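General statements about sequence and structure are easier to judge against a single worked case. No coordinates are needed to read the tokens, only the vocabulary itself. The sequence in question and its structure tokens are set out directly beneath this paragraph.
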Amino acid sequence: MPDPNAIETIRAAVDTITPATADFPGALALGADRHVIDMLELGLPGITDMFAALLDAYAGEVRAGASFVALTPDERSAVLRAMSTDESQDIRDAVDALIVFGNGASFSEWSGYDRATGDLRAPTTWSYVGFHGPVHGHPDYRENA
């Protein structure tokens, strides 16, 4: 299980990448932070703590002595931009993982799945982007339509 401070740091990063707006609930409201941590830990147990340490290290470059969680939203964005343009592919991949897993959870069936009941419904985010859900074929594309 990741350190509680690391979890809060990942939550702050997920919120920075896909924040709530007046018209959109944001990744935290959808529980995307849980998905990010689950996917990170599935790939390499303990890596969530490392990701949080990286975010905190870069935070210190934006505001001396500050942790990532203590930064303003604009400062957090500056950290993520700095990491996404770092010369190290590993650092860029860390930011990519946060983006892919966070947005993947927000816009995929993952956020529409009720783990307690096993029910799957269309994620609320689909209506925000105008996606009506999967289509099981189009008659115009069938050979013998």
Q: What stands out?
A: The radius of gyration is 18 Å. Residues 89-107 form the longest helix (19 residues). Residues 39 and 101 are 7 Å apart (CA to CA).
